[in-house]
Specification:
- There is one protein chain.
- This protein is α/β, with parallel strands linked by helices.
- Helix content is about 35%, strand content about 20%.
- An 8-stranded mixed beta sheet has the order 4-5-9-10-11-13-14-18.
- β1, α2 and β2 form a beta-alpha-beta unit.
- The longest helix has 16 residues.
- The termini are far apart.
Length: about 325
C-alpha cells in the first residue's frame, strides 16, 4: 500500500509552466535542457498558476511543479523587522526563486504563498541592475535566500554562482546566503569572497527528522560548514528557529555540542539565535494547512502582528542556547 501511495504522485517538476515572455531567456533554455521529459505548458503570467484559488500547499509538496517567469516589479525589498540585520544599516532581501524543495512543518512560506510550486525568475540580471542602483546611493546588505534555498537549487539554476560573480564586482555589497543544504560542493570551485557570508541553519537531529522533511541531516550540514570554512569562506551558524519541543534542552544541548565538535570555533564569523516567530496572518493560514501539527498547536502569543512562544518559554530557550553557545564562542560573535 505504501508503494501504491508513493506512485500516485507525479515526480517533482513533471510539469513546467513557462511564461510567454520568459521562453527566450538564456536561463529558461538552460533550465529546460535539464528536463527533456517534462510536460511544458505555455502561460501568460505565472500568477495564473501560482496564485489561483483553492490550492493546497501541503498536498502540492508531494509533487511540486516548476514555473519559469519574468519578475517585473518589487525586485528588492527592505529587510523585515523580524529578521536580524546583524548591525547593517541598509538591509534588504530579494527573491530570485519563490518556494523551496524542502518541506519544513513550520515554514512561513506556506502562510505567505497559496502554492507550493516553485517559481524561478529567469531575469536575474534585472535584479542585479536594481541592486546596482541602490549601491549608487549607499552600501547594501542583502539576503538572497530567505524565500527559497538557493544553494539547494544550484544544480538547477546556478543562481548561487551568479550571485557570487555579481558580488565579486561590488565591494559595497554584502551578501548573506542562508541554507539548510549540504550542497557546498556545488560552489566549492569559487574563490571565497570577503563580502559574502554563507549561513547554515543548524537544527537538532530530532527537529530535522520530525519537522524539516527532506532536509540534510545535521552531520551532512556540518560537513558542508566545515568544507566551506576549510576553503576560507565566512560562515554564520543560525540556531534559528529554536522550536519548543518535548525535551528541547536535551536535543539542543546535544546539537550544540556536536556542532562545536566538528566546527573550528576560531573560524566562525558569527552566530544567530532566535525562536520560531511568524506573522499572525501567515500562522492562521499555516494552521489551516497543518491541522494535525502538534508543533503549531502551541498557544502562541501575538504582539504587533507577530506570533511566537510565550515570554517565559522564549526567555528559557534563548538563555539556555545562548549560555551553551557562549561556552564555545565569545559574546561579541553572538546575535539574538
Amino acid at each position: 500500500m505504501q508503494s501504491l501511495k508513493n506512485n500516485l504522485w507525479n515526480s517533482s517538476f513533471s510539469h513546467i509552466y513557462i511564461e510567454k515572455k520568459a521562453k527566450d531567456y538564456l536561463n529558461t533554455k538552460e533550465i529546460l535542457s535539464k528536463f527533456k521529459d517534462a510536460i511544458k505548458i505555455e502561460i501568460d503570467h505565472y500568477k495564473d498558476v501560482f496564485s489561483r484559488g483553492h490550492q493546497s500547499f501541503v498536498l502540492q509538496k508531494n509533487s511540486p511543479k516548476l514555473i519559469l517567469a519574468v519578475k517585473e516589479d518589487n525586485l528588492v525589498y527592505k529587510g523585515a523587522e523580524v529578521c536580524e540585520d546583524f548591525g547593517n544599516q541598509h538591509f534588504y532581501y530579494t527573491s530570485s526563486i519563490m518556494n523551496c524543495i524542502y518541506n519544513c512543518e513550520y515554514c512561513y512560506l506556506q502562510g505567505m504563498y497559496s502554492s507550493a510550486n516553485v517559481v524561478v525568475f529567469v531575469n536575474i540580471e534585472d535584479i542585479f541592475n536594481e541592486i546596482e542602483k541602490l549601491l549608487e546611493k549607499h552600501p547594501v546588505y542583502l539576503s538572497i535566500s530567505y524565500e527559497t534555498d538557493l544553494l539547494a537549487f544550484e544544480g538547477l539554476t546556478s543562481y548561487t554562482s551568479k550571485w557570487m560573480e555579481f558580488a565579486s564586482k561590488h565591494s559595497d555589497l554584502k551578501l548573506e546566503l542562508r541554507t539548510k543544504s549540504a550542497n557546498f560542493n556545488a560552489i566549492s570551485h569559487i574563490k571565497p569572497l570577503n563580502n559574502v557570508i554563507l549561513a547554515w541553519t543548524i537544527s537538532p537531529d530530532k527537529v530535522i527528522v520530525q519537522y524539516e522533511k527532506g532536509t540534510p541531516s545535521l552531520d551532512n550540514r556540518l560537513k558542508s560548514v566545515r568544507s566551506a570554512m576549510d576553503k576560507g569562506w565566512k560562515v554564520r551558524l543560525c540556531f534559528d528557529p529554536l522550536l519548543y519541543i518535548k525535551e528541547w534542552r536535551k536535543h539542543y544541548s546535544k546539537c550544540i555540542d556536536k556542532t562545536f565538535d566538528v566546527v573550528p570555533v576560531e573560524q566562525i564569523h558569527d552566530i544567530s539565535i532566535g525562536v520560531f516567530r511568524v506573522s499572525k496572518d501567515y500562522l492562521k493560514r499555516i494552521k489551516k494547512e497543518r491541522t494535525n501539527s502538534m508543533l503549531l498547536a502551541y498557544p502562541f502569543e501575538c504582539k504587533n502582528g507577530v506570533c511566537s512562544y510565550t515570554k517565559e518559554h522564549t526567555e528559557q530557550m534563548i538563555n539556555f542556547v545562548y549560555n551553551k553557545v557562549n561556552k564555545y564562542v565569545t559574546k561579541e560573535k553572538i546575535y539574538i
